[in-house]
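Q: Could you fold this chain for me?
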Amino acid sequence: MKRLRAWRLFVNILILQFVSWRVFAGGEGLDIPEGLDRKVSLEGLTGISRFFAATYNDHLWLYAVYCTLLMAAIGVAIAYVTDFILSALGLDVTKIEHKE
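A: Sure. Below is the predicted structure, expressed as structure tokens.
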């Protein structure tokens, strides 16, 4: 029985290899696309919106770090507000103890 399973697996692998060769999966491909030069217009922006737009235009990696940290801070704030509201409603919001 084990030999039959091994043989079937081997044949299936060969069939999959043959199918990929027949559809020319490793062909020439497309040309390499040009880099995107997206810039945000700073006209009419003030305050925090201008700060983030300018950071996006000039320092994309720093913009990504700002967004990541901001999203984490907003998530923590939402968790604390939700915890406060549920406690005010009288619901138990302590950690759950898992027993295995």
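A (continued): The mean pLDDT is 84.
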